[in-house]
UniProtKB/TrEMBL annotation:
Function, in words: Adenine glycosylase active on G-A mispairs. MutY also corrects error-prone DNA synthesis past GO lesions which are due to the oxidatively damaged form of guanine: 7,8-dihydro-8-oxoguanine (8-oxo-dGTP).
Stated name of the protein: Adenine DNA glycosylase
EC number: 3.2.2.31
Free-text comment on the cofactor: Binds 1 [4Fe-4S] cluster.
PROSITE patterns documented for this protein: ENDONUCLEASE_III_1
Iron-sulfur is among the record's keywords: yes
C-alpha cells in the first residue's frame, strides 16, 4: 500500500485501519472505562478525559461512578455534592453540564442515554467529539471522534500544512478519519487513534519507528512530523499580579460568593483581585493589616495570574458579617468545592495549622 492509496482507496484505508487495530489490541492500556459497556459511564469518562490526563482521571472516574452510578443518581444529587466530587479536575462547567444533561436523561429520555449521534449532540455540554466517542464506543455507530490526538495523528499522516483549528484543516482531518473508520469496530478505532496520539504520535518526540502507520505517514517521509499539526496564530496570553486575602476570626475564615454567571459561577472563594484594587472588599475587613503567606499561580482562559496571599487576623470590634460573603469553620471549609486557587490556599492553611479540621484533609484543586 502506498501513501497515496491510503487516502484514495477504501482498500488502502482498510489496511491501515487493520494495522492500527492490531497494534491497539496488543498495547491498549487497561483503564476502568474500557472495561464497561455502560453508556453512562463511557460518557462520564469521555468528559473527564477532556483537559485531564488519563492517569489522573482514572481515580476520579472510579470515585464518581461510585457516588453517582447512574444518570438518575447524578440528576438527583445536589449541585454542591457534584462540584465537590469534581474538585481537582478543573473546568467546573463540565460538571454542571453533566448534571444538567443527566436531568434531561432522567426526566425526558427514560433514564437512558440516547443512542444516536444527533440526540447525544443535543444534550447540554455535549459537543461533536463527545457525541462521536459515546456513539461509537457505547453504541457501535460509525462516527468519528476527533480530539487533539486525532488531529495530530491525521495531520501527520496527511502532512497537512493548513491549520487544523480552521475549517479547511478540520475538514481534511475528518474526511481522512472517516475514510479509515471501520464499520465493524468504530469505537475501538477511535480509541486506537487516541492511544496512538497519547503514546507514540506525541507532540515533541514522536516515536515514529514504533508506529503501526509509519509506512504510510507523509510527514515521517518528508521529515516534517515536528511541524505538524499547524495551528492558526493565537493571541498571546495575558499576565497579571494581584492578592488574595485570608481573613481569620475565631477559627473561621471569610469566604465570598462569586456571581451566578461567568468564571467559577456560584462558587465560594477567598477574596482576590488582579490587579489589586483598594479596597478589595467593600467594608472594614479589607483595610486591616496582614502577613504574607506565599504566592499562588492561577491559569484560566488566556490569563496567567500570580496572587500574593495575605493572612489577615480580624480583631474584635470589626464587623463579623460582610456583604456578599460569610464565615466558615474548618470542617465546613474542608467539605466545600472551591476554585483552584482557593483550594490550594485552603490546603496551605490546614498544613500550617491555621485552621482546624477534625473530619478530613481536603485536596487542592486544579484549573
Amino acid at each position: 500500500m502506498t501513501k497515496k492509496e491510503l487516502f484514495t482507496s477504501r482498500q488502502g484505508a482498510e489496511q491501515a485501519a487493520s494495522a492500527l487495530l492490531d497494534w491497539y489490541d496488543r498495547v491498549r492500556r487497561p483503564f476502568p472505562w474500557r472495561e464497561t459497556t455502560d453508556p453512562y459511564k463511557i460518557w462520564i469518562s469521555e468528559v473527564m478525559l477532556q483537559q485531564t490526563q488519563t492517569s489522573r482521571a482514572a481515580d476520579y472516574y472510579l470515585r464518581w461512578t461510585g457516588l453517582f452510578p447512574t444518570a438518575e443518581a447524578l440528576a438527583r444529587a445536589p449541585e454542591e455534592d457534584v462540584l465537590k466530587a469534581w474538585e481537582g479536575l478543573g473546568y467546573y462547567g463540565r460538571a454542571r453540564n453533566l448534571r444538567a444533561a443527566a436531568k434531561v436523561i432522567a426526566d425526558t429520555l427514560g433514564r437512558k442515554l440516547p443512542e444516536s449521534y444527533e440526540e447525544l449532540l443535543a444534550l447540554p455540554g455535549v459537543g461533536p467529539y463527545t457525541a462521536g466517542a459515546v456513539a461509537s464506543i457505547a453504541f457501535g455507530l460509525p462516527v468519528p471522534a476527533v480530539d487533539a490526538n486525532g488531529k495530530r495523528v491525521f495531520s501527520r499522516l496527511l502532512d497537512l500544512g493548513c491549520p487544523v483549528d480552521r475549517s479547511a484543516g478540520e475538514g481534511a482531518v475528518r474526511e481522512a478519519f472517516s475514510l479509515m473508520l471501520p464499520r465493524d469496530r468504530p469505537g475501538d478505532f477511535n480509541q486506537a487513534v487516541m492511544e496512538l496520539g497519547a503514546t507514540l504520535c506525541v507532540p515533541r518526540s514522536p516515536k515514529c519507528g514504533e508506529c503501526p502507520l509509519s509506512g504510510v505517514c507523509r510527514a515521517r517521509e518528508r521529515g516534517t512530523a515536528l511541524l505538524r499539526p499547524v495551528f492558526s496564530r493565537r493571541e498571546k496570553g495575558e499576565t497579571a499580579e494581584g492578592r488574595m486575602l485570608v481573613l481569620l476570626r475565631d477559627g473561621k475564615v471569610y469566604l465570598r460568593k462569586r456571581p451566578s454567571r461567568g468564571l467559577w459561577a456560584g462558587f465560594e472563594e477567598f477574596p482576590w483581585e488582579a490587579p489589586p484594587a483598594e479596597p478589595l472588599l467593600p467594608h472594614a475587613l479589607s483595610r486591616t493589616e496582614g502577613a504574607d503567606f506565599g504566592l499562588i499561580r492561577c491559569s484560566f482562559t488566556r490569563w496567567r495570574i500570580t496572587l500574593r496571599v495575605v493572612i489577615v487576623p480580624v480583631p474584635d470590634g470589626l464587623e463579623e458579617n460582610a456583604p456578599g460573603g460569610r464565615w466558615a469553620g474548618g470542617d465546613e471549609l474542608a467539605s466545600l468545592p472551591l476554585p483552584a486557587g482557593s483550594a490550594r490556599v485552603r490546603k496551605m492553611l490546614f498544613r500550617a495549622g491555621l485552621i482546624a479540621c477534625l473530619s478530613r484533609t481536603p485536596k487542592a484543586g486544579a484549573e
